[in-house]
Amino acid sequence: MTGPFFFRGKGTTVYHIDYEIGNRRKEGWVKFGGFLGPDWRL
After folding, report:
1. What's the farthest any 2 CA atoms get from each other in the chain?
2. What's the pLDDT tens digit per position in 8-37?
3. Residue 4 pLDDT
4. What is the dihedral of CA 17, 18, 21, 22, to 10 degrees?
5. What's the 3-state SS for the chain?
């Protein structure tokens, strides 16, 4: 699963994150292993 990322190459890992701020639920994505370091999408 690549989430909001267009490309996921070999050796990369994508995590889906659920979190709360106050009483509002939110979600985010982070991709590790890319050339430029972690890529966050919150």
Report:
1. 37
2. 677 888 888 999 999 999 999 998 987 888
3. 80
4. -160
5. CCCCCCCCCCCCEEEEEEEEECCEEEEEEEEECCCCCCEEEC
Q: Tokens 């990322």 map to which residue? A: 5
Of 22, 23, 26, nearest to 40 by C-alpha is: 26
Q: Indicate the pTM of the whole model.
A: 0.70
Look at the block and give the residue holding tokens 């996921």. 8
Structure tokens at 30: 């982070």
User: What is the C-alpha to C-alpha distance for residues 8 and 4, in angstroms, rounded to an integer?
Assistant: 10
